[in-house]
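Consider the tokenized backbone below.
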């Protein structure tokens, strides 16, 4: 599904050049469950942003399902982000004034999908929140809010889920529950899952761990 060759990412901070990624080559197979780990500043979140087509590398090649991402038009990239990839972040990024159901429906508003309401309900039921659909984020626990975020990532039926520190704001018990949910989604739906974490106990849930330090795979 994913093939990157000699990817670099360089930021210019005034007169200082910061190399976030320093020549990473990596493949991720369809249906794989992988964790990307490394200390703060290692480049793992930068890599995740590039994999999610949220940022572009300074140099190198990124193929997604065999297509060179650099050659995609803006509308094609937007379609990839909306339909092929589901995103889950450490900050749940839920709209405070809308219900869990409405939050999950949001990605479908940007596509021509029919029966948005039904699909959002099904996604919430899949993450165990069938009885919390009308609740607003401030009426939900942290773990429940992350489940809403996961349902929102699932509602477009993506082939790939990218999760950046998905348990970073959760206690250990809730973190375990969220990882069990990812395991279930991976095994039942065959979704490719890639998540970033600094926690080795969380990374151990994945079938493959990719460790990054100073912008390279070690």
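A designed sequence for it:
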């Amino acid at each position: 599904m994913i093939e990157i060759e000699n990817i670099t990412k360089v930021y210019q901070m005034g007169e200082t050049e910061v190399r976030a990624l320093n020549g990473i080559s990596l493949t991720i197979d369809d249906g794989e469950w992988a964790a990307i780990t490394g200390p703060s500043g290692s480049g793992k979140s930068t890599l995740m942003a590039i994999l999610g087509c949220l940022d572009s590398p300074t140099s190198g090649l990124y193929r997604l399902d065999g297509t060179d991402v650099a050659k995609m038009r803006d509308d094609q990239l937007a379609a990839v982000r909306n339909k092929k990839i589901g995103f889950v972040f450490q900050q749940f990024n839920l709209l405070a004034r809308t219900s869990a159901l409405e939050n999950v429906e949001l990605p479908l508003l940007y596509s021509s999908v029919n029966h948005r309401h039904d699909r959002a309900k099904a996604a919430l039921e899949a993450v165990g929140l069938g009885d919390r659909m009308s609740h607003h984020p401030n009426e939900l626990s942290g773990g429940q809010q992350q489940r809403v975020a996961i349902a929102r990532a699932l509602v477009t039926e993506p082939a790939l889920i990218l999760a950046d520190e998905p348990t970073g704001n959760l206690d250990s018990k809730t973190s375990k529950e969220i990882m069990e949910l990812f395991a279930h989604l991976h095994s039942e739906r065959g979704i490719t899952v890639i998540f970033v974490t600094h926690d080795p106990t969380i990374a151990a849930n994945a079938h493959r761990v990719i460790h990054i330090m100073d912008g390279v795979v070690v």
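Residues 83 and 156 are 6 Å apart (CA to CA).
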